[in-house]
Amino acid sequence: MGIPRIDRSNIGVLLIDVQPFFLDHAFADRDEERESLVMRLEHLLMLTDWMDLPLIATFEKPVDENGELPDRLEALFPANGERYVKNYFGSASEPEIREAIERSSVRQFAVAGAETDVCVMQSTLGLLEMGYEVFLLEDCLFTTESHPGPALRRLYQAGAIPCTLKSMAYELAECVDRIPWYEGGMASDDPSGAKPFPEAFIVPEEWPAWRART
Predict the structure, then answer these.
(1) How far apart are CA 94 and CA 99, in angstroms?
(2) What is the pTM of this model?
(3) Residue of 2, 16, 1 whose CA lies nearest to 137
(4) Where are the domains of the chain?
(5) In the predicted model, what is the mean pLDDT of residues 19-43?
(6) Which residues pair with 12 in a beta bridge?
(7) Is the separation of the CB atoms in 136 and 155 below 8 Å?
(8) Calpha distance 74→80 (Å, rounded)
(9) Is the peptide bond before 4 cis (omega within 30 degrees of 0)?
(10) What is the pLDDT of residues 126-140, one digit of tens each?
(11) b/e per residue 105-136 (b: at least 16 CB within 10 A)
């Protein structure tokens, strides 16, 4: 059995239910934690767009009450990203989303969004059942539940792989000569160099601290 490694040419992103309703409830009176999460999601979208990774975003019904992406994330949503409204908690249970997953032609997904113990858990289990490798971006997950540890442990026991956005970013970059967030870090032979790297991108070492909730 091989060791799971992020493959830049074979990974997509599943962004689950990052909607104002869930953000407001999950981060009531916790503005610093909310900012840390939203900033990381901004950087996830910047990397996804710059590297042309397949992106599927879901929104739980009713969208007129839950909302769609916050304005800050909407401004960074890649032009080729796909959006779907879902009724099922598990994304793979929605035929249209399942078809989009299969159509993406990747065998790995990085998962971010909400809620860790509900839609993220059921969507991740669905991806695993479909045979995908799943990298859970723990610092890009959130929930109203104060103790999501049991859900995370269940997912890791099922085969999901713990990860953070910083780890993913450096694994996508692969080597020092291809770190695009440092001046002079992009090698001339990297095809992504044809697209300007986002000026708003902050180096991972300067991101605000995130609080692991177990």
Answers:
(1) 9
(2) 0.95
(3) 16
(4) 11-206
(5) 96
(6) 109
(7) yes
(8) 13
(9) no
(10) 999 999 999 999 999
(11) ebebbbbbbbbbbbbbbbbbbbbbeeebbbbb
Task: Tell me the mean pLDDT in the region 14-36.
Answer: 96
CA distances from 50 to 37, 79, 80, 197, 199 (A): 20, 11, 11, 7, 11
Do residues 97 and 58 lie in contact, with contact meaning Cβ atoms separated by under 8 Å?
A: yes
CA atoms lying within 13 Å on the CB side of residue 104: 28
Q: Give the tens place of pLDDT for each residue, 156-179.
A: 999 999 999 999 999 999 999 889
User: What's at 119, amino acid-wise?
Assistant: C
Block residue for tokens 């503005």: 31
Look at residue 194 and give its three-state secondary structure: helix
Which amino acid, 102?
Answer: E
Compute the distance between CA of residue 66 and CA of residue 2 in angstroms, rounded to an integer.
40
Q: Report the DSSP beta bridge partners of residue 15.
A: 57, 112
Architecture of the domain delimited by 11-206? 3-Layer(aba) Sandwich (3.40)
Give pLDDT tens digits for 56-74: 999 999 999 999 999 999 9
pLDDT at 188: 46
